[in-house]
Write a structure and sequence with these properties.
Elements lengths: L10 E5 L8 E6 L11 E6 L2 E7 L14 H10 L4 E10 L9 E2 L3 E5 L13 E2 L9 H11 L6 E2 L3 E5 L7 H9 L4 E3 L5 H7 L3 E11 L9 H25 L8 H4 L4 E2 L6
Parallel strand pairs: 1-4, 1-5, 5-12, 6-9, 7-10, 10-11
Antiparallel strand pairs: 2-3, 3-4, 5-11, 6-12, 8-13
Helix pairs in contact: 2-5
């Protein structure tokens, strides 16, 4: 393991253990932040492009979703120079038309988390970040294109609702989420997307449906979720590889400029 950060890293993938196999010449580094230490970060290359992989739950999946150090993770990636983040998430289907094994590229989100530190701006300068497009449209478009090249069903319009966890939701909560227009439910999509936007980083998510949500299917077990994750994993890796290879060098979205228009006062960095 190295403590010294490598030269600038372009792209980051946040997800489950195993995706680090995408990278060639992998090194493990530890990046300190004002918000504590995030998990070990793997850095390497994909087709000559510098990429970081961050396992949000730790290398052995030991950190539950409500205890993930989201601020530390996003801050560390920012310090590496990362401008674009592609996150992967296992989700439950709230939409009755979605099925386990589907790939989902959400376009909007609703936050029902309760006790997470969800901003870098607890103090001055007061910052009201624009979140009318929670996910980067440029990265989203490429995710959709590459996902549709697989044999899996792809849902390219979906509202993601984030709950606190670590318990699964009740049937009544799922009925409420469906009434609000939500399509999938997960426990890790917020505040990652918010924090990335606050630092001017592009962020988009590739989700896969691991189960039907409570009250729709049978009883949910972590074992079933894990088994489906393992079967869909190679397809997700295929999509991520294609996205990394085909992202343009220069960004054409507004993610990097939106934060400058949101501050009242001097800039703050992690």
């Amino acid at each position: 393991m190295e403590n010294k950060a490598p030269s600038r890293v372009e792209i980051a993938v946040i997800g489950g253990t195993g995706l680090e196999s995408l990278l060639k010449g992998t090194k493990q580094i530890r990046i300190g932040t004002p918000y504590g230490l995030p998990p070990l970060i793997h850095t390497g290359e994909v087709q000559g492009r510098s990429v970081a992989f961050l396992p949000r739950h730790g290398l052995d999946h030991t950190v539950p979703p409500h205890k993930v150090n989201y601020r530390g993770s996003i801050c560390a990636l920012h310090r590496l120079g990362v401008e674009r983040i592609v996150a992967t998430n296992a989700v439950g289907a709230v939409n009755l038309g979605f099925r386990p094994g589907d790939l989902v590229v959400p376009h909007d989100l609703i936050d029902f988390s309760k006790q997470r530190s969800s901003t870098f701006y607890d103090d001055a300068p007061v910052t009201h970040v624009d979140f009318s497009q929670p996910y980067c449209p440029e990265v989203r478009a490429l995710l959709i294109t590459k996902a549709k090249e697989t044999s899996l069903t792809v849902r390219d319009q979906a509202i993601y609702v984030c709950t606190e966890g670590p318990r699964f939701e009740t049937p009544a909560e799922i009925r409420m989420f469906r009434a609000l227009g939500c399509d999938v439910v997960g426990m890790t999509g917020v505040p990652e997307a918010v924090l990335a936007r606050e630092l001017g980083m592009c962020y988009a998510a590739l989700c896969f449906v691991s189960n039907m949500a409570a009250g729709i299917g049978q009883r949910i077990t972590s074992r079933e979720v894990t088994e489906l994750s393992e079967s869909v994993g190679p397809k997700i890796a295929e999509v991520l590889d294609g996205v990394i290879r085909h992202l343009p060098q220069e960004r054409s979205c507004l993610c990097s400029s939106s934060i400058e228009e949101s501050r009242v006062g001097e800039a703050k960095k992690c």
